[in-house]
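Q: what does this look like with hexanoyl-coenzyme A bound?
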Amino acid sequence: MKKNSENNTNSKKSSSSSSKITNLQTRKSEAKLGGGAERQEAQQKKGKKLARERLSLLFDNGKFTEIDPFVKHNSSDFGLDKTRIDGDSVICGYGNVNGQQVFAFSQDFTVLGGSLSKVASNKICKAFDLAIKTGCPIVGINDSGGARIQEGVDSLSGYGELFKRNTMASGVIPQITVVVGPSAGGAVYSPALTDFIFMVEGVGQMYITGPEVVKAVTGEDVSHDDLGGANAHSTKSGVAHFVSQSETDCFEDVRNLLKILPSNNVDIKSSNETSGDSDQSMLDNFIPDTANQSYDVKEVIETIIDSGSFVEVQNSYAQNIVVGFSKFNGETVGIVANQPDHMAGVLDINASSKAARFVRFCDSFNIPIVSLVDVPGFMPGTSQEYGGIIRHGAKLLYAYVEATVPKITIIMRKAYGGAYIVMGSKELRCDVNVAWPSAEIAVMGPEGAVNIIGRKDISSADDPEKKKQELINDYRDKFATPYVAAEKGYLDDVIEPSHSRKIIINSLNMLKNKVDQNLPKKHGNIPL
Ligand code: HXC
């Protein structure tokens, strides 16, 4: 009897447990519909992926652990009480990317246009706090109409909390933004505070004010894309670091970048990879005989690094300087290289800011820096002066001096004036400075120099043109070589170009245990 009643109780218990589990499963699968099947269809019709699909593209095997699937808002103004949906407008979680733990959030445009409510912000902040505590990168997938208008100040507070996390985590864990929809108004500042922004062509847009406001205020008639699409931000503003043609490509690109980055500022991404030594001999005849002839510095980069390891950052912006990550014998290294193929590799405002930010990222995350120098100087002209080349050029100086990671510099050809100093000279605390025999190190180029210091001799000569050429030749013999600098110890050595890879690997090994410090201070005051 007793047994039977026990059995009955157990079966009642198990049927009630299984119905609870069925309820849980139903509730979870309903939550996965976000704003509903109709809105999901509308999203797909626009050629956009759904928020969960995006997370699946990011994580290994499409798998992640969700955080806060049941969180919903409690607002009722402007009819919001009819929009209380499990999970609200963002999906947060963590999983592995290339076997390494990463946190992510993905805004769901089908729920009130992905707008940020206070609870959506709470969810993102929870993921952020865990990412910081566990030392893992965080990826934010943005597709949102901005602050949830109906919530007023609550929503603004949500953004404030997010900006605070972005800033506090800066230099501690890598932060990556993916823009796959609108990112409007003050909402753009969370992406802007992260380290790298990926945009998908024709899908992602970022702007402070939309085209209607632009028209009303300035009279300009621009489309959303012209104003803040991937092309505008990757070529003109420099806001975007990477552009992809499709969302699938984009998440593959994010995975590739994460593969090369450390997880946090104390993680040394050690690698057992070794890369065979490729043929370097082409470098010995690479620099053109004529000083003004251009070449593509990316050919040098591709030759000296581990084969195929280069991930270029901002490849369509300020192309007169090339920055990106690569590997040397499996170790991640940041490369900063002047690009003679674009504006003769001159340093202007955009190139200075681009390189300065890259150098600071590398330094924050203990990534050694290799600089490849061929630079005629800073860009002259009123547009540069009025735009603040002094202030922006100073950023690059500051970034190089401040960086305590191993710093290796190779001067390939021109290193003139302030640009010699700024591009990783010995004086800026660089550790290994070498030059190719083709290097020319001087205050300025021969032509400009004789026009100043030989002006009287030239004007009083019987044949001024002949005299000028003589003076140029003298100047070139004296200064346009690396040996004066090497004799004075400003260079550690003059090397055969084909030995560059070997010397970089050797120097990285020598510097492996480098310890250097900056003076104790709250923080410096980089010229912003
Ligand atoms: C609440 C919003 C919303 C928002 C969109 N929606 N943005 N709800 N708050 N910020 C809702 C819409 O009402 C609509 O709901 C649904 O989301 C889809 O929006 P649509 O307009 O139909 O979509 P689409 O035509 O694709 O246009 C998308 C859009 C547009 C370009 C993003 O919605 C838009 O311009 N939104 C406002 C963008 C903006 O100015 N944001 C800045 C807010 S201020 P229904 O139910 O009608 O389908 C801000 C300040 C932050 O963000 C400050 C931080 C410091």
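The mean pLDDT is 94. The chain is about 40% helix and 15% strand.
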